[in-house]
């Protein structure tokens, strides 16, 4: 590594390059904190040229590189490589353009999600994707993970909001994908790049759609005895053709945690609460809000509160948004899981998660985006109790198996990263995975861009996969060593 | 070709394989009828296995293949290869599943766009992308071209509605991309495949989102003296935060043609008409419809008609939908152009198109999706008059240059195909195009999947592009021979 260190110091200046072991520890993990790797070198990039110079150095020396924004990811996508360079984009925080006429903003990747919304508000706009970490997570990280959030039910994921990217590819070239227009000719590499978790290169500038602030926002909180009823209400709302901005659900244990942490004052005795938010033109929201209210009642809500003002609305959300951290009040340790199931299976899957928890002797709190079936079970445990961590891990893994069994997905919005690569073969056939890896090999034949993430079996890129047909006897596995 | 012909007859049965020269002529062009090439062989596929067997035969013999649905494309995307196999998917017409609960349909690629809507209507759903050719165009062709339509302003393009694909890749493998869920983990190859115009393989099964039929649809027709006023009204509607299902514009010459063909009875003396359609919940539509009406008046509409019922609404659309064909009534020949400009530049660009037409001594009728700046200038000419065809071609090309000059795109919804590959370097740098071709080479290293389409300079796929950096002296062009 000495050679690449020297080159980076020379090309970028010594203050951009960290190699002191103690300083490197700052970057040993992202939000998935139980995976830790100390990188060999950290580069604090400020410009596209600095990112490109770093990647070129890595390409020339065949040294792995990993990009990192704010480091809030929950699947270990920004977990460093022990022999690699970690490229930190957190200092690339310039908002380059906000154009209300075009409904677009152009930002550097280190810009914080909520900052962009704040900067757009004076023009009557905001940036719609809103991960729970929006106060701290970066747009670049959102692009890597195709981040979602509570309001993605109506507004879609990051990929639905990115129209242009400047990208440094794994060979160090700087290219433009897309632009301000929708649907340019040629291959839509924006779609492939957003959510590629750093395996196709590093985004150095991002052009996003801005969304007009809604005329009205109305929010209600409905409390239920029996979590099935909350699930049925969710399905009924969607089946009625209403698309709320958000439908969030919390179960009794999650409510207990939130009350302990932020005293949100949810209706006592609830097995589940739904937070339903509608936004849009006042006339539409008024009509649909009555419908949602009626459907919650019809499905057995024992109390419905309608936010009278922004303060009360903020209080409804405070409980939900603090839920992950709040669980720390009722359990020393916990695992955040992220999986997707069909909405129609909500009640059944939640019962089976409960059975799993009981069987494994752990507790599971459920907080999730009910509207799109995106579960976030929090598996509680105490690392000090021998065997509990393992039982929690098993429970968390079994929940993912459940999601697959019901035709869902191993991740809704946290990404695959280092954490879930092992589950990919349960969702996809070898041929499907091979086809995806064609793209990876095309961009990164030497396998230096965030290796070990997403795909469980790295492939020797010189070999063309998918050439094994009936009647051929080639040893397929022979091509799959790294 | 004898060898591959024999193999195809043997594997698929002789009735699936056409080699008779007269029969082959049926397939010599698609909707871009002035480009004609007779293919060497036509295969009429019925199943995924038949498509896969055909592509495998082509891969083994390194014979080019081109897929074709209904052949209605307007950029020559399905133009055959003289030494290649044309795979016709028009007989793959099975609707395999319509699931209202999942809001999904699964279809074979030959299913006609409008058929799918008709089959979904009893459940209260429809398939939203609606190209003007929807009565005859196939879903497979829509996938290849990422087709749009009048209502894509609100509902998005084909890519926004496809969630899963079964694809035969250029080496003959059958793989699944995506599924019924949104945003699965791994690379989003759906985005890249939709709109890849047959260069990454052949779609053999398509899973699409179904859209709930709106509670209400309301349509108005506004007539203007001065096309600028119609442009200003369009911008004002969008700026007001209204997203109509469609905003269509026709100019005086297009109106003249439509009147001659279908007697649609638009207000006499109009320089431009706008058709604005709103759909959605009744409460929202009612409120926004008043706003649209007001904005048309404020921008100088001299007559506004509101469709009283479905019959009158159909009459408004009849003029618009017949406009392309109607132009045949007032001109022996015409070229349909397809380009995109920023909405805010509508008036200015239309004036410059008018100047171009005058300068070249041809007439241009404008019919277009005003809401998203997608122009369809129809350049009229008489092939019997020496030099007119050339002047029309020049005018049509100059219009594309205008679109690029204003920061727009060389195609809005018709694709690049054989027709516009030459314009791609005007929109993209060499590095950008190289990066796109990485994907093509990964899927199709031998260059047999619809060669010559989209990209102007086919690349020797063994060479890695993008390796030329400052200070290197390699002859870039040397890597680009085919």
From TrEMBL, chains A, B:
The gene is glcD. This is FAD-binding protein. Coiled coil: none annotated. Its cofactor is FAD. InterPro entries: FAD-bd_oxidored_4_C (IPR004113), FAD-bd_PCMH (IPR016166), FAD-bd_PCMH-like_sf (IPR036318), FAD-bd_PCMH_sub2 (IPR016169), FAD-linked_Oxase-like_C (IPR016164), FAD-linked_OxidoTrans_Type4 (IPR051914), Oxid_FAD_bind_N (IPR006094), Vanillyl_alc_oxidase_C-sub2 (IPR016171). It comes from the Bacteria. Gene3D superfamilies: 3.30.465.10, 3.30.70.2740, Vanillyl-alcohol Oxidase, Chain A, domain 4 (1.10.45.10). Residues 35-213 form the FAD-binding PCMH-type domain. Residues 463-482 are annotated as: Disordered. Keywords: FAD, Flavoprotein, Oxidoreductase. PROSITE patterns: FAD_PCMH. Pfam families: FAD-oxidase_C, FAD_binding_4.
């Amino acid at each position: 590594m000495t050679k690449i260190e020297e080159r980076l110091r020379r090309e970028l200046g010594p203050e951009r390059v960290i190699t002191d072991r103690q300083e490197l520890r700052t970057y040993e993990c992202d939000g998935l904190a139980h995976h830790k790797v100390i990188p060999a070198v950290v580069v604090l990039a400020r410009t596209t040229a600095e990112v490109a110079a770093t990647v070129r150095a890595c390409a020339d020396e065949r040294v792995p590189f990993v990009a990192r924004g704010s480091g809030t990811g929950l699947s270990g996508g920004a977990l460093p490589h022990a022999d690699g360079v970690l490229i930190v984009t957190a200092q690339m925080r310039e908002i380059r353009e906000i154009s209300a006429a075009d409904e677009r903003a152009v930002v550097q990747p280190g810009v914080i999600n909520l900052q962009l919304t704040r900067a757009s508000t004076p023009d009557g706009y905001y940036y719609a994707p809103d991960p729970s970490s929006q106060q701290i997570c970066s747009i670049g990280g959102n692009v890597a993970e195709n981040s979602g959030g509570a309001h993605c039910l109506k507004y879609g994921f990051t990929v639905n909001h990115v129209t242009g990217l400047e990208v440094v590819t794994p060979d160090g070239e700087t290219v433009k994908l897309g632009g301000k227009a929708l649907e340019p000719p040629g291959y839509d590499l924006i779609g492939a790049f957003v959510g590629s978790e750093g395996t196709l290169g590093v985004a150095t500038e991002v052009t996003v759609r801005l969304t007009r602030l809604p005329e009205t926002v109305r929010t209600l909180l409905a409390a239920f005895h029996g979590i099935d009823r909350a699930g049925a209400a969710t399905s009924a709302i969607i089946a009625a053709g209403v698309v709320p901005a958000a439908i969030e659900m919390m179960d009794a244990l999650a409510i207990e945690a939130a009350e302990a942490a932020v005293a949100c004052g949810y209706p006592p005795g609830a097995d589940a609460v739904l937070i339903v938010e509608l936004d849009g033109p006042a006339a539409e929201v008024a009509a649909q809000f009555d419908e949602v209210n009626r459907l919650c009642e019809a499905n057995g809500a024992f109390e419905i509160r309608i936010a009278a003002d922004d303060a009360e609305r903020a209080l409804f959300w405070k409980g939900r948004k603090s839920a992950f951290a709040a669980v720390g009040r009722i359990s020393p340790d916990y695992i955040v899981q992220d999986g997707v199931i069909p909405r129609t299976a909500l009640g059944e899957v939640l019962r089976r998660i409960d059975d799993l928890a009981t069987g494994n002797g752990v507790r599971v709190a459920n907080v999730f985006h009910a509207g799109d079936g995106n579960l976030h079970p929090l598996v509680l445990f105490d690392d000090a109790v021998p065997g509990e961590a393992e039982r929690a891990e098993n429970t968390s893994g079994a929940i993912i198996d459940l999601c697959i069994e019901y035709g869902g997905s191993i991740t809704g919005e946290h990404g695959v990263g280092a954490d879930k690569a092992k589950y990919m073969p349960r969702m996809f056939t070898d041929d499907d995975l091979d086809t995806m890896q064609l793209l990876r090999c095309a961009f990164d034949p030497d396998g230096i861009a965030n290796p070990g993430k997403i795909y469980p079996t790295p492939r020797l890129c010189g070999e063309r996969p998918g050439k094994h047909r009936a009647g051929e006897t080639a040893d397929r596995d022979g091509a799959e060593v790294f």
